[in-house]
Structures are given as C-alpha cells and as structure tokens.
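Check out a protein:
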Amino acid sequence: MGLTGLEIFKHLPKTNCKECGFPTCLAFAMALANGKTTLDLCPYVSDEAKEALASASAPPIRMVKVGVGENELEMGDETEIFRHDKRFNHLTAIAIIVNDNEEDIEAKVEAINALEYEHVGQHYESNMVALINASGDAATFKSAAEKASAKTKKAFLLISDDTAAIEAALEVLAAQKPLLYAANKDNYEKMTEIAKANSCPLVVKGEDLNSLAELVEKIVALGHNDLVLDPGSRDTGKVLVDMTQIRRQAVKNKFRPFGFPTITFTSKDDPQEELLQAGTYLAKYASIVVMKTAKREIHLPLMSWRANVYTDPQKPVAVEAGAHEVGEVDENSPVYCTTNFSLTYFLVEGEVDSTRIPSYILSVDTGGISVLTAYADNKFTAETITKAIKDSGLEDKVKHRKIVLPGGVAVLKGKLEEESGWDVLVGPRESADIPKYAKEHFA
C-alpha cells in the first residue's frame, strides 16, 4: 500500500507556494497519494523527503520499454482506472504473430510493415512482431529471427517456453531489446537470468491472478523489475475480469505485484470476431494485444478505436489553425471557413476535395470545438474569423475577397462583412452538401 496524503504532507516543505499548481501543500500531498501528480513539481522538497517519498511519487504501474530507437515502445506509467479522470498515457501496442515454421516469413513481416495508415490527420501503425517458436526447435527459431529482423525495425516479442530457443533467438535480436515470453512457475529462474543478462523485459505468466502475484514477487526478488503481466486466461470474459482486477489493484490499492504493464492474446480465428476481441482488450487496460491476422481492413478500425481511447478526454482533438490548401490552389481558388475541431475539419476537407475544385479551407482556432459549439461559446465570431483571415495571409493568397461561411452560423454574415471587408457567402449547413454548392457557385 502507498502512503496516505497526510503521511506525504509530513515530508513536504509546507510553504503553500502554489508553484506546483495546487493551492496548498496538503492539496498537493493528497493528489500525490492518489497518483494525480508527481513529486518533481514541488521546487522546494528536500533530498531526504524525495528518498522517503520515492514509492509514493512513483506511478502505480511501472514504465517498461521494449525495442530500441524510433521503434522503442513505452508501456505502463499509467495512473488511472477511468480514462475521464485524467487520461491513459501509452497506446496499446499491437503485435502480429509470425510462426517460425511459416513458409514465407519475410512476406508475413512485410505485410505487418504495411499496416500503416494516414487517417484524419493521424498516423496509425502496428508496433510489434510476435515471433512464436511453433516448430519447437531452437535452430529454426533462430533462423526465423534472422529472416524477420532483416525485414523490419519493429520491436519483437519472442514467444517460447524453451529457454534454449529464447537464447538462440537472442543471439540475433538481443541488441533490439525484445520482450521475452514467458517466465512461468517451472522456468522463471532461468528466464529471469536470461532477461537480466540481455537487459530485456520479461513477461510473467501465471495460471491465475494469485499465482501471477506470487511469481512476480519471486522474480522481483531475483533483481528483475522490467516485467509484463499475463494472468494466463484466454476466454474473453475472463481476460476482461483479470485485466480489470490487475488495474484496480495496482492503481487503487497500490498492490505492487500488479504494478506492471499487461499483455493479452486474441483467441478467435474469424478476423471479425478477433477485431471485436482485440478492441475489448484494448479498451480494458491491455498494454499489448497479440493478434493473428494482418488484414488491413481489420487493423484500420482497431487503430482508429485505439486512437480515440487514448486521446486526452479533457483536450479536444484539433488541427492546426490557418489556411489549408486542398489541391493545386491559385489566386482564384474558393475559400471555405470552419473551425479547427479535427472531426469537423476533415469532414469539410473530404467534401471539398471531392469537388475537384482546388480550394482553401480556413480553420479558425476555437480550441478544437465544433462550429455551433464554438459559436455558442463566442469562439467562432466575426472577430475571430477576421483575425484568422489576417493571420493566415489569405489576403495575399487570393485576389478575390469572398469567403464561404457555414450555413449553421449564417447570422454572422453581416457582422463578418463589416469586420473583414470580405463578401460572405452563406454555405450549406451540412458538409455533405458542399459538392452541390461548389458546382452551383464555383464550377
């Protein structure tokens, strides 16, 4: 169990300086006890206090890193049970299985590499290659590691109960710091030795939550702390229960044996069912989801769902404010106006692009909220739109002075013309009607 707020308060300087962002040292102590802040925000805490409060200031779930360089994955460091309380910090990693006895390992790895998408201004991609010792042969596992590593720089998950096979694959992949799977009650001493010798993180696999906690304590006692937890369940409902219990015990009760990232495996053979299963695990605390399929049509919705789960719920998703070009614009191109709320902007951009008429879209900085919401909040006004026109340099980009205003805020037309000096055209209320509007006005 962690320290209480009052126990932490005893070690603080009690200056109530507010420099940490809290009104009093007691409020800061309470937030620290609940994992809502970090000790380094206090500028006056002593070294002695830092040492005494080390366990309280550490996140309830340890940070664990897999891989190296630009493909290094960070897992853990989570502080919340419920996303809306603050946010979830690190995206669930998606790993795709490659069996070491597959006929064309290189092709499977290249298919995994190809799981990259640009969607609504965000970049999505798979994260890991899960190499399984399906052959049961150490030499085959090593050969597969050589073939796979030659085709990708992604992080690796090495899966085998045979410690000799793990050691063989590490002869190829040790420098890439793969995640080793798995230490169990029979091999944990040897697996821990291998993981420590190669500075690799290690999955701990229990038969249930009780055995998992006991095994974690044994491995930590051997001096290895970079761990990932697998309670061993594969049934969807049981996995959901186990993942929830691990997160609750780690965050709410500060139960240290469960204070590590987690890994889950899909068990469904049908790709559509596997998608639903993976999406469930992603939403309920899995740090890694290991999947069978590498079909693009399965991974795009999964990654889109992941991006939504891991956005900051207190910060709307926004695009950069300014004048955005759609197509090969020139001085005669139409100018559309909207807010910088990501969903609104990309809906408008898609429809403008479908007109095949090169155009500008002026996205006004509304703090990332939609047109009608921003209008109601006095963030999408004649004044803010006029300022956006000037700041974006549109007056130097086009020779005309016409701008299309969203139909839902047609009431701004007169005031905007007065403020900006531009002619204001009232556009459609719905973005889906932009192609028809453009055909009538700009074709």
In short: DSSP finds 18 helices and 17 strands in the chain. The longest strand covers residues 93-99. Residues 236-251 form the longest helix (16 residues). Residues 322-441 form a domain with the Rossmann fold fold (CATH 3.40.50.11600).
